[in-house]
Structures are given as structure tokens and as C-alpha cells.
Amino acid sequence: MAAQQQRKNFLLDDSLESKVSAIEGDFNLSEESCRTVMERMALEMQKGLGEESNEKAKIKMIPSYVTSLPDGTERGNFLALDLGGTNFRVLHVNIGEPINGRPNIDMDSQIYKMPESVITGPGDELFDHIAGCMYDFLSRLHLSNTLLPVGFTFSFPCKQDSLDSASLIKWTKGFSATGVEGENVVTMLKEAIHRRGDMQCNVVAVVNDTVGTLMSCANFEKHCQIGLIVGTGSNACYMENSKNVGTTSIEDGDMCINMEWGAFGDDGVLDDFRNEYDRHVDNASINVGRQLFEKMISGMYLGEIVRLVLVNLTKQGALFNGKLSPALSRYGTFETSFVSQIEGVSDMTATQNVLASLDLLEANRADCEIVTRVCQAVSRRAAYLCASGIAAVAHKIADNDRRSGKVEKGEECRITVGVDGTVYKKHPTFARMMNSMTEVLCVDSNIKVKFALSYDGSGKGAALVTAVADRLLKANA
To answer: Of 235, 242, 247, which is closest to residue 211 (Cα–Cα)?
Structure first.
């Protein structure tokens, strides 16, 4: 992440300062507000975990059937599949003996395009295409006759019934292949492999990418119990005591819960923290009234929130001499990457360059200062909302660990969060702001939260889920 340089404050005249301060107030989240969000998230989590309350819960707390984190003894060759968009990735992952006490993972991979005709045609043809890509990759590595356990990252909404069983609820991301919604995607993949009859693969796990993010980080971070993605979208998962999960019959050990926290607030519990710009973003989206928490924090929406604020300020005459460019007037033109660029430098040149790309060629220093402060306000709120969610999860884990005796009374509870996503990795201040507010929300409860970058949850993480399942299978044989 780029280090932010020290920015010199530029004094605005009283009229402009009043307008900008009002905008900052619309996005301000105090410590007290963050605690309120944290407490509401905790209540929603409990609702999602309850057998009877789950149906009405907006945070669905989906059991992933991943019951163990890597313990360092996983070994072998695994295949990982990653389907979440128009690119499909196949990976061969070899987990060997540790080197100097560190995990030893060797990976090879290839990306295959998913043609429009495939993602919108018959479902059987979609899975035949996937199987064909698998065979092409394995034959190049001379592994088509080697029996390999397979982990399948399928990044679409699913109802999961076991580690190797998940039914597609609804296609997203431009996919519309027929005959797949409501069906078990693992079964469809196995049938496609069987139709070919020319490779030896055993699909043992279907994996959510957030769960993969947790697994990938837990492979090298001892206290990792939470996975977080803050990128185009946002989600979190964590390790819960199975006995607390009312939606499964499993009583023993742990269960990784895929929270699907983007839907937090869909029942109105965040309405007092949402503003007119959030409502505009929601109304312009393809899923009005849904994923409201995600729409306040993720990369798909942050730039658009900033654009709406800038349009409003321009109409008030506070920006760009009151002149709107056609580009700034169009939905989606202010990209979230622009927010990172503007906040990452101390002079106004980068801001002027971004604005010039939107045909705002006469931006002066006051304009640049206002645009920067709007970006900072939107980013800060997103980071603090994420922190509030993570703090709720951390308190839940700490409460579990103290009740079970895993953490002694008076002992500090240490939790690591494995994080992936472009907003976390590329925004110059997001990680620091999220970390600082999480600390504020957890320190009084003697909880120490650490954030660590997780790499390739949808690839390496899927292989690790498969490797852990393979280890447990052999241990119970």
C-alpha cells in the first residue's frame, strides 16, 4: 500500500468551508456511532445463527462445512478451480515439507476465458467447458491420469449442504446459464468430468472466496480466525463453535461461517447512518434495497458516492465554478481507484489529472482541496463501518474462547484477520483507519486484533480447504 504523504491544509473561505463541513458531517461516524453499528451487527449475527430466527435474518451466517484450519501437516498435490467472472482459473498446488519453519507451497496456474455463449447458454455446456479447461491444463502438466483432490471456488450465491454440496441460488455477474439455478454445482461438475472420461479428479470441496481468504492467511498466521474481503464487494467469515450454529446438526468442534455481511442493514437497521447519497446509489443499482452495508463500504460503490457528492456541490456553486462536465454527470465515471489516487499524494497535481480525465480542466486549488476532503470523508466512513463489523466478530470469538476456557480470565484474546481486496490493498489510508477504529472498539475488552494480507484465497485458499479436508479424511479412515 502506498504511503500517504503529509498534506498541507488549504484554508477555504467561510461559505465553502460551511458547505464542505456539512458534507463531512453527513459521512461522520463517531466512536459512539461505531459502537452502535457493532452492537447491531452482533444482534444480526445471533439472529443468523439461530435455527428459528435465521429465516428472517439479513446476515445469513451460512455454514461452510469447513471445520478446521490448516495445522501445518497438510501435504500433497491438489487442483483448485476458480470461477467468479469471465475468467476461469485452474491451479495445481503442491504442499511440501516446510522450509525453515515456513509453509512450502508451489503453484502453477492458467487462466481461461469464459465466452459469452458459454456463460449464457445451457448449463451442461458451461460445465463441459470447465471440464475441458481442466483437461487442457492437466494434460499440459502430464497429470490427466493422476487422481487429484479438487477444490472448487464458486463465487456465486449458494445454499451449502455439506463441504462438497452447494446449490446455486441465483446467477450474478452477467452469468445466466440455464438449468443451473437450484441445482448442485458439484454434481454438475462431476457429471461433466465423467462425460469426458479422460481425467482422474475427485471434487471434495466447494469453497466461498472469503473462506479461502481465511484459510490462505491461517496457513502462516497462528491466530487467524477471521477472513475479510474489501474489494469490488465485501464479505467476512470466521470460526464459530459448531454448537452455536442452530442451522446445522453438527455439535462438535468448529465451523467456519460465511457471514454474507453485505446484506447487513437490508431490514433498515442502518437507516439512521445512511444519507441521501447512499439512497441515490441504492436506487440506481440493479439490486435495490439489497446489500446496503456493502454499498457503503465496497469498491463498486465508493467512487460513485464521491461522484454524487461532487455533483451536488457543483450545483451549489461550491465546485468548478458551478459548471458540471458531461463526464461527471454520468453514472460510474468517478472510479474508486480515483479516490485512492487523490488521497495518496500531498500535492494537487494528481487530483487535477483525475479531474482532467473527467473534462474538468480548470480545477483550482480550492476545488482540489474540496474533492480531496470528500474522498477522505467517504473512505473514512467505509473504513470505520468495516472496523465496526470486524469488532463485532472479534467480540463473538473472544466470548466463545473465554466461555470454553481457551482464553483464561484476564488473558488477552489475540485474533488475526486475513484480508484481501483492492480497497484494502490499494487505498493509501483505508487499512490504517480500519485498524485504528477496530483497536478502539476492542481494547476495553482485552481483545487484540491484527490485520494481515491474505494472498489468493480463491486459488491457494481453495487448495488449502481441500488439503485440510483430505487430512481429516485420512485421519478418520
So the answer is: 235
54 CA to centre of own chain: 22
The CA distance from 343 to 175, in Å, is: 35
Q: How high is the pLDDT of residue 360?
A: 93
Q: What's the maximum distance between 2 C-alpha atoms anywhere in the chain? A: 75
pLDDT of residue 14: 84
State yes or no: is 58 an active-site residue. no
Question: pLDDT value at position 7?
Answer: 53
Active-site residue, selected from the candidate residues 124, 173, 399, 450 = 173
Under DSSP, the state recorded for 401 is H
From 209, 254, 278, 420, the catalytic residue: 209
Backbone dihedral region of 161: left (phi > 0), alpha (psi from -120 to 50 degrees) or beta? alpha
Those residues of the chain that have pLDDT short of 50 are 1-6
426 catalytic residue (yes or no): no
Q: Which of 355, 332, 351, 333 is nearest to 343 (CA)?
A: 351
Q: Give, rounded to a whole angstrom, the gap between the first and last alpha carbons of the chain.
A: 45
- What pLDDT is recorded for position 1? 43
- The rounded distance, in Å, linking the Cα atoms of 453 and 216 is 10
d(Cα 301, Cα 334) in Å, to the nearest integer? Answer: 10
